[in-house]
Design goal:
Blueprint (H helix, E strand, L loop, with lengths): L7 H8 L21 H29 L14 E3 L18 E9 L5 E5 L8 E6 L5 E6 L8 E6 L16 E3 L4 E9 L5 H13 L1 E4 H6 L23 H4 L2 H4 L2 H12 L11 H11 L16 H25 L1 E3 L2 E4 L9 H10 L10 E6 L14 E6 L6 E11 L13 E3 H5 L9 E7 L6 H5 L1 E3 L6 E10 L13 E3 L3
Parallel strand pairs: 6-7, 16-17
Antiparallel strand pairs: 1-2, 2-8, 3-6, 3-9, 4-5, 4-8, 10-11, 11-12, 12-18, 13-16, 13-19, 14-15, 14-18
Length: 498
């Protein structure tokens, strides 16, 4: 049987058999008999470090492919176009999102057949990319203006174990083997001056992008199938009732939620494990002792009160340790903490978990973009919405990027701050379009809760919350060396004097 030639509805039926819940009583005790409290604590913490990436992926995939109540639902193997920039009312799916690119994409499963990815000619100059990541947030596929140019492109993404007859006319560099059968794939495309023409050109490109199963592409005459004509297929993955309420793993996930999610991820055959990693193999052996193993569904009801309390404490402690490890891995760029894969160790489970706890999908490859966080002002005090601040750039020394930069502002939890002018970030595109006031070669942004009285300063207003702490997570798309190694002198945020 050649899965590459199966019709879409047959594939849908086969997908429903991919990851069913583990049924029946566990043949062995879920938790190893006689395990010490010390071992249960240590392995519970290790589970958090190794497994938070998989848990974040699993939960997000559920929201996109199974939770019909979520506005982001689109089913599996089907992209969805987001025609609206994220704002304070629409950014609750994840933390520290940007407000300068539109998105198109979804979650894809190539366990039964490959996916065909098509992009049209990009007219004019703007940042765009299509990137795909597996459950480890390993970015294995990157195309776009900074990677592969602006011409029409087509690719075939196949699963790690798939074998079959490939369609004609795909070059070797256009055939991508995914490291996992299940992955997310996203088109990011920047808006520039935000005019009607700008958005129209952006929408036109997005509508020309196609991410479809091979059988559907062939059935449609080897042409993109309009999204309206593509079937919506629920993800076939095991779940439990509370998953609909978790959404954001950093804010809503309890310890028991985590262990249940990790158990589902370990038992999901579409989440291809790294069998060539001795470190992962040994980690999974230890996790098996606390019920996190294939063939077993982790059930909190089978825990004794003491075991449950121990795992909850381990979860809380691991979260603190992971955040500290992530912070330690960042490069201090004049007070801004730079996240660049130049300083990233894929085997550092603690730092990786800490990054995922901020936002799934990080650390991003520096080939795409880097991120710099700031939580404190120039005096070392936490950024406070009750105060007023300035952030001043020399226009001759703006962040060195090949694409664009953006400075989004968030509340203490990583969400956009609602404000009367719907401004959530400032960007180099808008600077080039003349949206901001420049005086004496200086570009100064005013970070405060109310608009500046001076009309020129008000053009550069970046609203902060009325009270409480806030943060920024600067994005540098197409970073050059100073924004990769942290040597760029990013300006500090200074408290304004009335």
């Amino acid at each position: 049987m050649k899965f590459a030639r199966l019709p879409g509805m047959v594939i849908a039926g086969l997908l429903m058999m991919v990851a069913l819940p583990v049924a029946g009583a566990n043949p062995l005790p879920m938790i190893e008999a006689g395990i010490s409290t010390a071992d249960l604590t240590a392995i519970g913490e290790e589970a958090f470090y190794w497994g938070l990436n998989q848990v974040g992926f699993y939960e997000l995939r559920y929201q996109f492919t199974q939770n019909h109540a979520n506005p982001a639902f689109r089913g599996v193997n089907k992209a969805s176009i987001n025609r609206q920039l994220f704002n304070a009312k629409t950014s609750r799916i994840a933390t520290t999102v940007n407000a300068s690119t539109l998105y198109e994409g979804g979650n894809f499963d190539v366990s039964r057949e490959p996916m065909v990815v098509l992009t049209p000619q990009m007219q004019g100059g703007r940042y765009w990319s299509v990137q795909a990541a597996d459950q480890y947030a390993s970015w294995f596929f990157m195309i776009g203006d900074q990677f592969t140019g602006n011409g029409p492109q087509h690719y075939l993404v196949i699963g790690p174990h798939w074998q079959g007859k490939l369609p004609e006319d795909f070059r070797s560099t256009e055939i991508i083997r995914a490291p996992s059968d299940s992955f997310s794939m996203t088109l990011r495309i920047a808006v520039t001056d935000r005019s009607d023409k700008d958005f129209a050109e952006t929408y036109k490109f997005m509508e020309g992008v196609s991410m479809t199963p091979l059988s559907l592409w062939e059935k449609n005459g080897r042409k993109p199938a309009p999204l309206s004509e593509q079937p919506t297929i629920d993800g076939p993955y095991a779940s439990f009732p509370r998953m609909a309420q978790i959404g954001d793993i950093a804010k809503s996930m309890t310890a028991m939620d985590f262990f249940e999610l990790l158990s589902l991820a370990i038992n999901d055959p579409t989440l291809t494990k790294r069998t060539d990693s001795l470190e992962e193999v040994e980690t999974l052996k230890r996790l098996a002792r606390i019920g996190l193993r294939e063939g077993v569904r982790f059930d909190p009801e089978q825990l004794t009160p003491g075991q449950k309390s121990t795992l909850e404490s381990a979860f809380a402690e691991a979260r603190l340790i992971a955040r500290a490890a992530m912070n330690k891995s960042l490069q201090n760029m004049n007070g801004w903490m730079l996240q660049s894969s130049l300083f990233y160790d894929d085997g550092d489970y603690k730092a990786h978990a800490g990054a995922v706890d901020v936002a799934w999908g990080t650390p991003v490859p520096y080939k795409s973009h880097t991120i710099a966080y700031v939580f404190d002002d120039a005096a070392g005090r936490k950024l406070d919405g009750a105060r007023k601040y300035t952030l001043t750039f020399d226009v001759g020394k703006l962040p060195p990027v090949t694409e664009f930069w953006e400075l989004p502002l968030y509340d203490a939890y990583g969400y956009f701050v609602d404000n009367p002018i719907n401004r959530y970030s400032v960007t180099s595109y808008l600077y080039k379009a003349g949206a901001y006031a420049v005086k004496d070669g200086k570009l100064t942004f005013y970070l405060q809760g109310t608009p500046p009285a001076d009309p020129q300063q008000a053009r550069n207003w970046l609203p902060t919350p009325a009270g409480g702490n806030f943060q920024l997570a600067a994005r540098f798309y197409g970073p050059t060396t100073g924004l990769i190694d942290g040597s760029y002198p990013m300006p500090r945020i200074v408290e304004a004097k009335d």
